[in-house]
Amino acid sequence: IITPNLSAAVLERSAALGAPAIPCALTPTEVETAWTSGAALVKLFPARLGGPRYVRDVLAPLADVPLLPTGGVDATNAQEFLEAGAVAVGVGSGLGSDDELRRLLDAVVG
């Protein structure tokens, strides 16, 4: 269950249903709150605000939190987000064509 925000009610309901929840967060406080509240991963949005460097900075004190950056991830920077410590990336509007999707997959998978 992927959410556009950090909702304790959604995390609680997801846990009750045995469904993994991936709430959205931006600040280190939100990231830690999501993780300690039972998130399977934490969606970092919008990732374009701080880029891969922000992922690295957030993970410095929160290394146990699996981050999934979205919002600003594309074929030109997906690998950088992964190298910064993200466990995966989410791409939406960055996918505009089959060629762009191929470039993204090549960048991430190799």
Radius of gyration: 14 Å
Sum up the overall morphology in one term: globular
Low-confidence stretches: none
Distance between the termini: 28 Å
Number of helices: 5
Largest sheet: 3 strands, parallel
Q: By helix and strand content, what is the structural category?
A: mainly alpha
What percentage of residues falls in helices of 4 or more residues?
40-55%
Order of helices and strands: HEHEHEHH
Query: Strand portion, in percent?
Result: 5-15%
Number of strands: 3
- The residue-averaged pLDDT reads 91
Strand order within the widest beta sheet: 1-2-3
Commentary on this structure:
There is one protein chain. This protein is mostly helical. It is 42% helix and 7% strand. The protein has helices at 8-17, 28-36, 51-59, 78-83, 98-109; strands at residues 24-25, 42-44, 67-69. Strands 1-2-3 form a 3-stranded parallel sheet, covered by helices on one side. Helix 3 links the parallel strand 2 and strand 3 (67-69). The chain is globular. The N and C termini lie far apart (28 Å).
Features:
5 helices, mainly alpha, three-stranded parallel sheet, single chain, 110 residues, globular
Short précis:
This protein is mostly helical. The protein contains 5 helices and 3 strands.
Helix-strand layout with pairing:
Elements lengths: L7 H10 L6 E2 L2 H9 L5 E3 L6 H9 L7 E3 L8 H6 L14 H12 L1
Parallel strand pairs: 1-2, 2-3
